[in-house]
Every structure is written in structure tokens, then in C-alpha cells.
Write a structure and sequence with these properties.
The chain is 47% helix and 22% strand. It has one domain: Glutaredoxin (3-Layer(aba) Sandwich). The protein is built from five helices and four strands; from the N terminus they run ααβαβαββα. The protein has a four-stranded mixed β-sheet with strand order 2-1-3-4, sandwiched between helices. With 134 residues, the chain is an alpha+beta fold. The protein is globular.
């Protein structure tokens, strides 16, 4: 019984799998693939961060809506220097999307705090649509 409980807890915390394990790799893959880079800066101690991963990102991933971006999560406790370089302000979670609507011109778009599936979906439409047209 205890093993089932542990398995359920672990499954809950690993709800959204990032296709890449670290920021540097995700950045490199985004450049190679020409896909936007979506960075989620969060922390395990943050209830809004855990909820964002387990609801919003899980739903977007399961419906295939994250296929057009490179997704990576940066834990602000485990990587404080990288997190502070990426973040604007101190509030977490932060969803930061780097996209290249025109060759040679990078654009940064950010959402701060817990976000609904619809809000993130709208952000993704804005950054992915220009790439599909080009």
C-alpha cells in the first residue's frame, strides 16, 4: 500500500516532462530546430509552480500544444544564478518564451504567476504563428 502511495506522489511531481534536461541543451536545440524556447522558472517549494506544471502544462503537453516549442524548466532553488539571469522580478512561476519572428531578431515574451491553459495557449499561438507563416 505504501509503495502505491509513493508511486502516486512521484507520478504527480513528474507530471510534465521537459523534452530536454537543461537550459543550455534546450537553447541549442531551439536554435537548431528554429523553434521558440519556452522556459518555466519555478521551484518545488512554490504551490503555484507545482500547480502550473500539474495542470496547465500537463494539459498543453497531453494535447500536443507544446510540440512547436522547446520546453525546459529551471528550478530557481537548484540554479539560482541562471534563474536570476532569466527572470524579470522575483515572483515565480515565470514562463519566458524566446522566439525569432524574423531572422536575426529575437523576441522575449513573459507571463508571471500561475497561468491557465488558455493564457499559455494564446501566448504559444502568438509566438508560433509568425514562424509558420515565414
Amino acid at each position: 500500500m505504501f509503495a502505491l502511495l509513493i508511486a502516486a506522489v512521484v507520478a504527480n511531481f513528474s507530471a510534465v516532462k521537459a523534452p530536454t534536461s537543461d537550459y543550455a541543451t534546450a537553447y541549442q536545440e531551439a536554435q537548431q530546430d528554429g523553434k521558440p524556447l519556452m522556459v518555466v522558472v519555478s521551484a518545488q517549494r512554490c504551490p503555484a509552480c507545482v500547480s502550473l506544471k500539474n495542470t496547465t502544462l500537463r494539459e498543453l503537453e497531453s494535447s500536443g500544444q507544446l510540440e512547436d516549442v522547446r520546453l525546459v524548466t529551471v528550478d530557481s532553488d537548484a540554479e539560482p544564478k541562471l534563474a536570476s539571469q532569466l527572470m524579470r522580478g522575483q515572483m515565480i512561476p515565470q514562463i519566458i518564451v524566446f522566439s525569432q519572428p524574423e531572422v536575426g531578431r529575437w523576441q522575449r515574451t513573459q507571463l508571471t504567476g500561475y497561468q491557465t491553459t488558455g493564457t499559455v495557449r494564446n501566448l504559444l499561438r502568438k509566438v508560433v504563428s509568425p514562424l509558420r507563416r515565414g
